[in-house]
Amino acid sequence: MKRLRTFIALAAVPLFLAACGNLGSSSMSSGSKTSTSGTQLTGQSNDNDYEGVIQSGHYTVSKSRGVTNTQDSGNTYNLKSFENGMLSVSKKVFSTKNYVFQEGQYLSSTTVQNWLDRKSKTNSVGLNPVDNGSKSASKRNPIYIQALEEQDYMTQKNGKLSLGGVTVGIAVNSVDYFKKVQYGATYETKITQAAGEAYAKKAANTVLKRMRQKSALKNVPIVIAVYRQASNDSLIGGTFLAYSNNKAGSTSVAKWTALNQKNYVFPISNGASSPNSNDASSFSNFKSQVENFFPNLSGVTAQAQYDGKTLQGMHVNITTQFYSQTEIINFTQYLQTAAQKYLPSGVPIDITVSSTDGIQSFLNRTASEKKFSSHVFNSY
Amino acid sequence: MKRLRTFIALAAVPLFLAACGNLGSSSMSSGSKTSTSGTQLTGQSNDNDYEGVIQSGHYTVSKSRGVTNTQDSGNTYNLKSFENGMLSVSKKVFSTKNYVFQEGQYLSSTTVQNWLDRKSKTNSVGLNPVDNGSKSASKRNPIYIQALEEQDYMTQKNGKLSLGGVTVGIAVNSVDYFKKVQYGATYETKITQAAGEAYAKKAANTVLKRMRQKSALKNVPIVIAVYRQASNDSLIGGTFLAYSNNKAGSTSVAKWTALNQKNYVFPISNGASSPNSNDASSFSNFKSQVENFFPNLSGVTAQAQYDGKTLQGMHVNITTQFYSQTEIINFTQYLQTAAQKYLPSGVPIDITVSSTDGIQSFLNRTASEKKFSSHVFNSY
Hints:
The structure is a homodimer.
Chain A: H1 2-11, E1 39-41, E2 53-55, E3 58-59, H2 67-71, H3 76-93, E4 100-103, H4 109-116, E5 145-157, E6 160-172, E7 175-179, E8 186-190, H5 193-212, E9 222-228, E10 239-246, E11 257-258, E12 261-266, H6 277-291, E13 299-307, E14 310-319, H7 325-342, E15 349-355, E16 358-365, E17 373-376
Parallel strand pairs in A: 6-9, 14-15
Antiparallel strand pairs in A: 1-2, 2-3, 4-5, 5-6, 7-8, 9-10, 10-11, 12-13, 13-14, 15-16, 16-17
Helix pairs in contact in A: 6-7
């Protein structure tokens, strides 16, 4: 980081252009207040996050901005988990120390839209299968690929940011929702994990070949990650199945690395099992301590992510009726104690307390911390 | 605190009953998991907050729970600012080190409701004026007192929590909203600050006298604080005008201490002025740096509280369209740098970033910190 920062700073003549670690040194231009010229970086909240690229005071948005968003509207958890997962996979290949994040600049909205459409006479580049005419859930060709997103990872060469690598995420459906007539009922074609994964891996080869045709993408590593979307009724997003790191110049995927990611909603529903019964019972002890705190029952659920049998983190959601600010303050203090006592240690956990009026308070703890820090949302 | 903790711990035979500072020592019962017997405290997030009282695992809710809430539904900012302000006033008299917070246990819902009603043949205890029959905004007797709330402050005596003092907040209207016919249009009777304050101070004497009639309240200090509600169209809550600290046994208010609290919404609207032009220009520099970060304009406003000409703190609200998680992550990193650079230092500031999907991220800094810490809300 230090080296990168110095490099960029040296090059910043006459522009003030500097990266910053942990906000110690500000990356803001000290020049004009309303429009900053040149390239800046966002600054870095912590060493585990990439800095992002700002051009003339504006964030460099994705060239296909919004395409994924629309695609994913069925289950909003998918969007966040897809993009966060792409960042996590990228961190395995492009370190946050040496690379800067930039939203995808090489695949345009039109390109991504055409690739996501079905293959047809008018759209020869479609990655989804041709429409075979059937309206039967089991006989039709489903839409396999629901979203495709590009993320760019920049390095510093001769005082300028330049492309150091690209990550492409391919999201396949677990359920393809379709209508037989416009505005009609919604039907479902289920896609098994094996079928979806195989389809995505085949498409990944096509995508890699096509990307190599762009001169800027010829000689950089391209990571491709395959994601399986959760169904629309899921209370949690999907997970990544596999990724490949394709060396500069390679035009077909040589090797896939499997990912053993699984998401769970706590409390585990009857009949289902969690990968680790200790975590499940920790959570239910916490839940029973917390749900009866007020005369009105508070709802306590959690999203948990596992890598194999190892818990990776938890998002706890508590919903409660809002009566008074002092109740929320005291509830939050109580949660701080109860969470430390009952919830699994050694993993990042956050807890949000919401009412119909929106979020009321929030607690979190990183993997290495012992105590939860908390914040009660307030108003003058 | 230390002393209090030891006292309570000593007394906790056979119950486990202990206060705790900063979560270092847990106040949770180590006994039964689902129902904890005896008195506990919530634990304390930081030295500036009171701990709260838990009885048999349940929070000790106010005996008049919900009455204020209903009263205040016109402007939800009022409720939070009223209760937080009562805590702030209380801290001037009852230190967080030596007192424990308990929701009001001496004034019941019925009592508070009757006091808040108009005086009438059937309700001789009403603190609001008799209905003079007029429907004219300027001739009718308005409802002056909109809310009344009790907070109890407990100390430790002979190993048991006992009442150490009480704070009563009296909230007067700046505007009394009324209807001439049921379900009809809403009309307004404006109440000047002077008139509202005078009315509340007179009522305070009555309240004090009545409270002294309860044996438990005879010999404890009773703090009475007068609050002026903001109008329903305000983007900020009301403020406290004055408080009195009435010694044990006293039945009439001897002395009022004026409070010079003022709330402002930034950016200051045209023609209006803020108590400190530096703060206002700091905020607008921050705003112009931030609002053009994305191609879609982000809305940036703030609530600021002043004591005289001195800024006490700021709640900044940023609304932005939600496109992607990576945008929010980078925006938040950028805000961290920009907020540190532009926003006034030495006061507590928090910043929430929301979209139509709810809160996306959050930053805050205490008065003594230099750097903002941040959290991006996430999902698996």
